[in-house]
Amino acid sequence: MKPSPTRLLLSAAAFCVSLWLAGCASSTPVQAPPLVPGERVSVSQFDDYWFAAARQGRWDVLDSLLQAGYPIDRANPRGFTAIILAAYNGHPDTVQQLVQAGADACLGDNSGNTALMGALFKGELASAKVLLDTRCDLNQENNSGETALTFATLFGRYDIMPALIAHGADPNHQGGHGNTPLRTAQTQGNRQAEDVLKRLGAD
């Protein structure tokens, strides 16, 4: 069934609000965690340090916690991992360091939105380009059936669309709710996105 513009926009808006709240929740500069040399951390005790450091791109804090045994893919109650928060808040160097340390960039939050989707929504294209080189399936869908290419379509990230497709995004992928990136552009009445997608092989 063809998705309505309202459903697509509400999905995008829900993503916006949830990640915006997460991104703004840590306005105070993060402090170095009180670690004892050789100590193995109690995970919940250091959650606030971990997620604040991810939002602020503080690799020094993240690395110190990793060295003390903090799990790299731990998620907060909304399902946001460090790599999702770092990507959304525009810290590509931290995203790269998390990837190199073994973070799973394919994990989605509670709505199925991945770090790449967050970066595309926010327009953090440097973070998005780092994430293109991970092992993730670029046709992975969130809970609303949207892919990274659908996000690029919805939010006008035309410059990165060729790279998305070159890395495996299918311009004709039909999501679980019946939408394709091209159909999304047509539903929006977005002729520019429609033209770009057609040039890249959408039909």
Automatic annotation (TrEMBL):
Gene3D superfamilies: Ankyrin repeat-containing domain. PROSITE patterns: ANK_REP_REGION, ANK_REPEAT, PROKAR_LIPOPROTEIN. SMART domains: ANK (SM00248). InterPro entries: Ankyrin_rpt, Ankyrin_rpt-contain_sf, Dendritic_Spine_Reg/Scaffold. Residues 169-194 are annotated as: Disordered. Residues 1-32 form the signal peptide. It comes from Cupriavidus pampae. Transmembrane segments: none annotated. ANK repeats lie at residues 78-110, 111-143, 144-176, 177-203. Residues 181-191 have a biased composition (Polar residues). The keyword Repeat applies. The keyword Nucleotide-binding does not apply. This is Ankyrin repeat domain-containing protein. Pfam families: Ank_2, Ank_3. Keywords: ANK repeat, Repeat, Signal.
